[in-house]
Every structure is written in C-alpha cells, then in structure tokens.
Design brief:
heterodimer; A: 285 residues; alpha/beta; Rossmann fold; 2 domains; six-stranded mixed β-sheet; four-stranded antiparallel β-sheet; 7 helices; 35% helix; globular; B: 288 residues; mainly alpha; MetI-like fold; 11 helices; 0% strand; binds adenosine-5'-triphosphate; binds magnesium ion
Chain lengths: 285, 288
Amino acid sequence: MRPQDFSSGAVATKGAISIRNVTKIYDPDGAQVMAVDNCSMDIAPGEVCMIVGPSGCGKTTLLNAIAGFHSITEGEIILDGVTLCSPKQPLAGQSADRIVVFQNGALFPWKTLAENVAYGPMVQRRWPKAECLERARTALKEAGLGAVVDKYPGEVSSGMARRAEIVRALINDPKVLLLDEPYRAMDALTKQIMHEALLEMYDRTKVTIYFITHDLEEAIFLGDKVYVMTTRPCRVKKVIDINLPRPRDYTTLTTEAFRLLVKEADEAVHEEALKAFKAGEREMA
Amino acid sequence: MSAVTIDQPQTPPSKTFRRRSKFERAISSLGFWRGLAGILVFLVLWEAAAYLKATLDFTIPFFGKLPAPTLVAAAAAEVVVQPGYWWSWVESFKRVLGGFIIAMILGIPFGLALAVNKYFRDVFFPPFEILRPIPPLAWVPASLIFWPTNEMSIIFVTFLGAFFTIVINVLGGARTIDVRYLRAAQSMGANQWHLFSRIILPGTLPSIFTGAAVGMGITWNVVLAAEMVSGGGSQAGGGLGFFIWSSYMGGSMEHIIVGMISIGIAGYLSSALIRWLGERTMPWQRAF
Ligand SMILES: Nc1ncnc2c1ncn2[C@@H]1O[C@H](COP(=O)(O)OP(=O)(O)OP(=O)(O)O)[C@@H](O)[C@H]1O
Ligand SMILES: [Mg+2]
C-alpha cells in the first residue's frame, strides 16, 4: 500500500496493471527487431510508476502496447483483472480508460483549450454538449488555466499546453495515465511547475501513472517506484522504491534521502547506458 | 494551493493601448511607403521612356514601344464607363468561379477519399496521376469538340486547371496529419466518423486553402488563354482574355495594357477572397 496516503486527495481503487512476460518483436518476418524481451512488472492501483532506461531500449514500445497502438508478440497485459492483450488478441482495444499524453503534446491545434478538454466527453456522449464544455472550463480553471480557456494551443506557452493536455486526459476519468516524456525539452523552472501541477492533479484523482522519462531527478521527485530498464531488448533491471514523504515540493530536492536515491538510480542507468553504447559500437563495426 | 497559479497570465499591458486597424498599421509602416515609392519610380521611368520616343525619336529597348502610362490611364478612363468592359469582368469571373467551385466540390471529397481509403487510392490514383501532368490548355481542342457550347468547354478546362491542384493538396494534407492527433482522439473514444469530421477534416483545412489559392491562380491563367483561343462567348463581352485579344486585333496597345492590369486586379481580388475565407474558417491559424 501507499505509505503516504495521509493526503487529503482521493484513494486509489482502480488501475492495477500487470505486465506478464511480454515480448515484442518488430518486423517478425524481416529484420526481427526484439524491442521487449520477457518483461514483467506489476503496477498497483494509483501508483506513480516512473520508467527510465537508455534511449531506444523499448520504453515507448511497452507504452504503445498498453495504449493499444501496437500489438505484442508474446505475454499478456492485464488491467484490473481484464486481459488487454495476449497472444490470442495481440492488439489491445483502445479505450478512454487508458489515455496517452505525448512527447510533443497533441492538443488539437484547431480547437480551443476548452474544446480540447471537452473532446473526450463529447465523443463519448457522457453529458450534453454544453455541459461538456462547462465542465471542461471548470476543470481548466481548477488547474490554474482559467485565463486561457478560449485560447488556441498555438497561443499559449508550452507549459500551459502540456497542463491542459493532462486536464484533457483526466476529465475522462481514466484508470491509467500514460505519459511519454511529456516535459522533455522544458527548462528546469517550467518543469518544476509542471511537476507540482501534476502532483496536485494526481492527489485529486489518484490515477495510476506510467511515466517515461530520461530525467532521473524528475523520476525520483514524482514517483512511487522507479523502474530502471535494461538496454534493448527491454526488461526491468531494477526497481527503486521511493519512500520520500508526500506531499513533496522543491525542498524535497535538497534532502539527503533524495540525493542518495538519485545516486542509486544513476549508477543503474549508467551501467545500462554503457552497454547500449558498446552494443552500438559493435553494430557500427 | 501549490505553484500552479504562478504563470497564469495577467491582463497583458498591451490591452491598454488602442488597437489600430489593419489599414492604419499598413499606412504607418515604412515598408508601405517604400512600396509606393517603388511604383512611382517605375511609372516615372516608363513615362520618361515614352517621352523620349515622342520627342527625340529614341527608342529605349523593352520600354520604348509601350504607350505612356498617362495614355494608358486615359484609355482606362474611357473604357471603364463602357458596360462592355464590365461584362468582360463578369464573363471571366463567371468562368473562373464556375470552374473553380466545381473543382472544389469534386476535388475535396475525391482527395479525402484517396487519403483515407486504401482501396480507393489503389484504383483511382494511377489514372489520376497519368492525367495530371497534361497541361489544362492541351484539353482545349478536345473539350471544344466534346462539349456542346464554347462556354461549357471553357469552364471544363478551367475546372481541370484547379481540380488536379486541389486534389493533390488535399491528399497530401490529409496524409500528413500527425498520427498523434489520431491516436489521442481514438484513445478518448472517437469513432471513425469523429476521426474524419473532427480530426482529418480540420487538419486538412490549411492544405485545402493552399490548394485553393494555387488553384485559383491556375484558373485565371487557363480562363484567359481559353478565352483567347476560343474567341470568347457569343455576346459582346467575351471575357478579359477576349478583351485583350480584340485590342490586339484592333492594334490598340493602350487597351491591351488596360486589359492586362484588369487581370492583375481580378487575380488579386480572387486570392484576397480566398485568404479572407481562410482566416474566417481557420481562426487558430491567426495565432501564428
Ligand atoms: N515500428 C517499428 N518498427 C521497427 N522497429 C521499431 C519500431 N518502433 C521502434 N522500433 C525499435 O525498437 C526499439 C525500441 O524503441 P522505443 O521507441 O520503444 O524506444 P524508447 O525506449 O522509447 O526510446 P527513446 O528513449 O529514445 O524514446 C528501437 O531500437 C527502435 O528502433
Ligand atoms: Mg520513446
């Protein structure tokens, strides 16, 4: 169980993901790229699960399998007792219980932020159209975006856009939020604000989070667990439990416990990165 | 509350300034005056060239044979009061818009169908690609024979001019929509129709308008050439192309130039119309 559940927010009840012996081979009839090899992980409901690993190791591949964008070759992925994909049905169905926030952001540029957020409930016909928009506005206001609800994504900063995108995901009340390096290429200050905003939204929803990143400090600051993956083919190399108390804020970053955790993660990642580099050299030779 | 409210935008200070109209902004920019000066210098040189010829009998290459701009202006003043001249406008515009609108109506769905359906693309794209490189004017003789009236054949050729451009743009635009938008929409529960109407269609709009702008340019080219070739319609006004052609037959250089400038203005108006429509339909594009 989560040791830090003393916070005022919701209690996690859903979103248990079980990844069992999943293997993914791209292009099985040709080049046979093995991206994921017999990988297993168990994610508890409401867990913030941070994935780190060398570039190209297969993190996105795993995310795509959970989201239903790509099929798997072997193994199975189970969400709250329901099998999403298995060799019998290699491609998981897409549904609003798993929502992806993409690396470069995927707000629809032709819709205002409020229309973007209302999109999911609207196509699912959850509420009448006007109510969808009303709720979208409210949700954006709660996330501190009240002043820009009627702006187009091209008119707001990337930080605001990314926050709006998470609001757009959460309004669907998903079981799992899948984030693929959402804050990459942001400056440290914006990132810090993003992190606090995400934690705040997380506190209210307790949605399970599968978060890919290259930034170890980000991983430790946000996560309940950090999964360090091996170089391709992808497997779990090490799971680091992050027992830093919540709520966390920027002062957490300077504690001794935080520093030690970063060191531990850094050593594991570095080892894999070296392997990846050597494998690359071998391929070039 | 945490730091989430920190970068909430304050009312921007620029709001306290009076917003100036597009016209005011244009007038006050240096670029505008430089452009105006350029045109004036051009007109003065042109006038001087014509003057040299009249007084010293010295002909400057290129410029020399042209009638002076004052003479052209005089001819224009005389022409614009004649209804026949305005009929030429109406005739040409009717053909341009006729061909253009039919091309949009058929081209947009055709391009979208090519983009979203593999079977449709497999069957219809190859013949399309074979027909596309044929210049519209090469169709003129065949269409004169094929269509019962001159008018219909001109509109048909105009249509062809715009159609291929529009289809290619729509196809390209729809095929290059970022897959992340489609995935995001799908994961939020969009069905096939939603994907088409709310993602592919708006995502293709910029390309549709690009295609329309280029297509409009081609349409004017084609209409004028077709009017010259076919001798215009049966009425007094055979379109601007015919206006130029008959001025040439009548040996009036001034009128030829009036016709040419008219076409310049007509083309400008058409593309301004498309730009205006584009800004109307795609408010998000104004952000850039
Ligand atoms: N569609 C595909 N077809 C073939 N190979 C692919 C495909 N997609 C990814 N790969 C390969 O699979 C491996 C894992 O890719 P993946 O995108 O999952 O890595 P990643 O861990 O997300 O990397 P990064 O950190 O750079 O985003 C890479 O070697 C990549 O080249
Ligand atoms: Mg990736």
